[in-house]
Design goal:
Length: 208
Amino acid sequence: MRAQLEDRGPPGPSAFREQLRSVPPRDRDAWLDLALGSEEVPADGAALPRGCTPYLPCSVGALLGVIDLARVEASDVFIDVGSGIGRAAAFVHLSTGACAVGIEVQPALAAVARALTARTRLSDVTFHVGDVLDRLTVLERGTVFLLYAPFGGERLRAALAAIEAVGRARAVRVCTVDVPSLDERWLLHAGSSDEGVSTYFSVSPMSE
């Protein structure tokens, strides 16, 4: 898979998922890291704001739960808030064909993510550097949002308020991993997985 990505580009979602299914579940995270060439992760730096979670890779099992529970399709725009080295965004794109966009506050991690997309020819995966609260216009493109415990408290509430504004214009899905249940009037809990994934669908203003 790594040779194919670097030599010929993405194989297409069906072919990628077929290869993934051939790998035992316990080995899938290591397989993905090898396929993307993302075995090395830079240490968190001073750019990480207080109250934000240090980078942790989201497991393949959790990402598959996100894809299935949120019903991610090729027509979606997947936004990863706190995208780290780009692993989750790349995986969702490869698995579904969806356009993927990452927002990462740490420049060193975002640089690794951008190098990954260049190396693997993932033209529909892009990354923005900065605090999500300063990059709210990026959220406007999204239909599916991933929050893998990036932060809590007021920062989380502010990010959800920005996503709610997007949800007023069109239906969106919000997926969380290892985040306490969201108590938002505009979100309807749609399911959870054993991997700590919870998925919510936006409620249209007319149905509130």
